[in-house]
């Protein structure tokens, strides 16, 4: 598991792993859901940035972040590590760390 890996969610959307790699030994991961952009129009793109995954746009639903069991994570489908700044900025906006 690596920070900013993208995993398939049971409902057909994705989960973005946002947990530090230094905490890899924990049995949970801090994730943010990624939903189809078509299903989540509008919104503040600083809090909810859009990313292309396999040619389809997904919205980072930062306000729905949660901890889940690592047992729920399958094989990652891609990584958004190249978007580290935008992802970090969205989390900072949610937590007031900006």
TrEMBL record:
<dbReference type="Pfam" id="PF01845">
    <property type="entry name" value="CcdB"/>
</dbReference>
<dbReference type="InterPro" id="IPR011067">
    <property type="entry name" value="Plasmid_toxin/cell-grow_inhib"/>
</dbReference>
<dbReference type="GO" id="GO:0006276">
    <property type="term" value="P:plasmid maintenance"/>
</dbReference>
<keyword id="KW-0678">Repressor</keyword>
<dbReference type="InterPro" id="IPR002712">
    <property type="entry name" value="CcdB"/>
</dbReference>
<protein>
    <recommendedName>
        <fullName>Toxin CcdB</fullName>
    </recommendedName>
</protein>
<dbReference type="GO" id="GO:0008657">
    <property type="term" value="F:DNA topoisomerase type II (double strand cut, ATP-hydrolyzing) inhibitor activity"/>
</dbReference>
<keyword id="KW-0805">Transcription regulation</keyword>
<comment type="similarity">
    <text>Belongs to the CcdB toxin family.</text>
</comment>
<keyword id="KW-0804">Transcription</keyword>
